Amino acid sequence: MMMYKILILEDNVLLLNTLEDFLSGHGYECILCESGKEALQKCYQEKFDLYLLDVKVSDINGFDLLKELRSANDTTPTIFVTSLNDKESVAKGFMTGGDDYVKKPFDLQELLFRIKAILSRSKELTDTKIIIDDNYYLNLSRKRLYHCDQEMDINLKDFELLSLLVRNRGKVVTKEMIKDTLWSSGEEINEGSIRVYINNLKKIFGKDSIFNIRSIGYRFEA
Fold it and tell me: 12 and 104 share a domain?
C-alpha cells in the first residue's frame, strides 16, 4: 500500500517539525512549508492527498491559499489547524472549502483520527481507476500513475495530460483542450511545455503511443 502524501503549512518551526515527526512515524510522507507562497508553489508542482494548513502565516494566509486552489479546481481534502477559534473564522474555513477545522492547542492523536477519517472518506468517494493496458492504470483521486501496482514518478502536468489523452483514447485532443486542462486562469501558458510533457509520456509508453496531429493536437493510441 502506497503512503499518503501530506503538505503541512505552519510557520511555527517547532510545531512543524513535531507534526512531521508524528505523522511520518505513522506512515505519512510530509512536505513542509513555512509560508503561503511556498505552499502554493508546492501545490501546483506536486500531488498531495491532504493539506494541513495554518491560517496566520506570511505572504498568503491559509484561507486565501485554499480559496485560490479551489478556484483552480483543486479538490484535495484540507484540514485547517489554527489558533483562530472564533465562530466567524471557523465558518470562513468551511466556506472557503475546508473539510475540517482543528483549533490549537490540539491533541496529536485526535488530529491523526481526523486525518484518517477524511482520507478514508475521500478514497471511498473518489478512488477511481482508469485502466490503460495490462500493466498501467491511473488513480484519479490520488493523481498517480501505476505500473504493475507500483507508483511511477511523474509530475502533475504529465499526469493531467495523460489523463486527458487516455479518457479521449483514439480521438484528437486539441491544443486548446490541453491548455484548458493543464493551466488555470492565473497561470502563464507555455505551448513549448506541451511538447515536453508529450515526450515525457512517450518515454513511458513508446514513441508511437501518441500521434501528433499537425497544428491541431494529439491522439493517444497506446
Answer: yes
What is the CA angle 22-143-133, rounded to 5?
Answer: 130
Predicted TM-score (pTM) above 0.70: no
Phi/psi for 104 (5° steps) reads: -80, 145
Q: Which string of DSSP letters, residue by residue, matches 31-54?
A: EEESBHHHHHHHHHHS--SEEEE-
> In terms of domains, do 118 and 140 share one?
no
Instruction: Report residue 221 as a C-alpha cell.
Output: 493510441
Reported as a single tens digit per residue, the pLDDT across 90-122 is 999 999 999 999 999 999 999 999 999 898 876
Q: Which of 46, 72, 42, 78 is nearest to 59 (CA)?
A: 42
CB atoms within 10 A of CB 10: 23
Residue where a domain stops, chosen among 77, 107, 126: 126
